[in-house]
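Exam prep: given the inputs below (a chain plus flavin-adenine dinucleotide), describe the expected output before reading on.
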Amino acid sequence: MKDYDVIVVGSGIGGLTAAGLLAKSGKSVLVLESHDRPGGYAHGFKRKKYRFDSGVHLISGCGPDGYRGGQIIYKVLQALDVEHCIEFINIDPFSHARYPGLDAALPQSVEAFCERLGRLFPEERQGLRDLTRLCLQVAEEITVADEIMACTNFAEAHRLMPALCKYRKATLAEVAREFIINPKLLGLFASNWPYLGLPPSEVSFVYWSTMLIGYMVDGAYYCKGGFQHLADTLVDGLARHDGEIRFKAPVDKILIEKGRIAGVEVKNEKFAAPVVIANADIRHTICEMIGEEHFPPRYIQRIKKMQHSLSIFAVYIATDIDLIEHKLAHESFCFQDFDHEKNFAATCNGEITWLSITAPTLVDPNLAPPGQHLLMLTTLLPYQAAESWQQAKPGYMDAMLKLAGKYIPGLEDHILFIEGGSPATMRRYTQNFQGAAYGWDVSPSQVGPTRIPNQSPLPGLYFAGHWTSPGGGVYGVSVSGVQAAQKVLGIRQQAEFWRLIESIGQA
Ligand SMILES: Cc1cc2nc3c(=O)[nH]c(=O)nc-3n(C[C@H](O)[C@H](O)[C@H](O)COP(=O)(O)OP(=O)(O)OC[C@H]3O[C@@H](n4cnc5c(N)ncnc54)[C@H](O)[C@@H]3O)c2cc1C
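Solution:
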């Protein structure tokens, strides 16, 4: 049985981030991944001459510059000495929002965003500006929240982080209504809600602000070559620091000895380590891989009460239609209604009434042969929307294709390749419960101090990924990987952690 300092279960972006940083810090690290490639929801697949992303198609946090502490993915790649091996393509506008009678680009920078949307709703210009600036203030305060909370009291925290403290329990809808009256502008402002899986009335305003400002200020990026390249580059970074990874290695059990972590078991083979970082679904990790009896009952109750996010239905298409002629953007959110509560309710009923259309070949033509394009159509769906996804899949694919045809006339006659990915597919490739796209929901009661923290009460067990703090999306899980590594090293403040990581290897 080989010994390691740290074993990471799963090679999603959260797991790879934690693994790479700990390898860099000098720990011996092994990553075990059940799939045949790294990345989790960021993995890619090839069909014929096409390179598809399975899920992830736009992220933030990749630039060398950005709002304070925002460029987390760039920092991680730099720490692993692989930032020069990858190219991120800046996407500005970061999204297009399409509604009946209104088609709006959502540009980067607070000024350009307010100017563009303000032109459409001149009477709401001031409210829009104030709301967007508030999002910026919250996003900036959150980057220092951990450090402030580590060394000060609550009253002082209120003084230093007034917006975060005031709005920590608020939803996007509650805050947006303080500033904007027109329901169409409220809908337009919230157009990216599918990125967080919850409608404005349920999503945390704080998490929303981090996401929106991440794309708007730090920048929105596509990874040249597809997001598999991001995962592969993180694996290269891990290897550069002597970390190991094994594929087709599903961890069945996490071993406990004398009340603490002792290692893991994969197909009857054992690997010893005093520290395990689970990048897998937390409920599965605790209840199936370890056993509830090793945790305090209150912790188990809390885990069982947490609400998970919806899954996603995806359609992967290759086409020879001229998307440039159709003025398509990298990503368009296409809604029939400005009311996202209605859109979400239809989604929860298993109906296809809206979708996002992503066309990565517009920014990275090498993903397909010349003259051809790739499209990914996505919509949120609950796993329970179908009894048998095998039977339901063709019907959902047809519905998505028909809806996309409204925005790309003639698409149905120009299909060179088409394949569907249902919530069951999402579950199969990542083992996330019911194919949850973002781990636990990011509602106000499940983010911040009330999310399941990166360090568990079982000595030696840590978490990285979208089931732990801070939350879902590639930006969020990258932060979670940093936080998990920091906790394993027992460092209280993130600034100190980065000082340590950056000092390694310097003369
Ligand atoms: C279709 C889709 C599109 C998305 N698009 C975007 C986007 O554009 N931008 C964005 O920021 N976010 C997007 N998201 C959300 C984002 O992909 C996730 O929140 C994030 O990638 C999750 O990362 P993670 O580190 O938690 O690991 P996951 O991606 O959940 O991967 C977990 C890994 O652990 C492995 N694993 C699980 N159990 C075991 C075990 N027992 N043994 C060994 N290995 C195991 C799995 O095989 C998997 O590789 C999307 C999600 C989906 C589903």
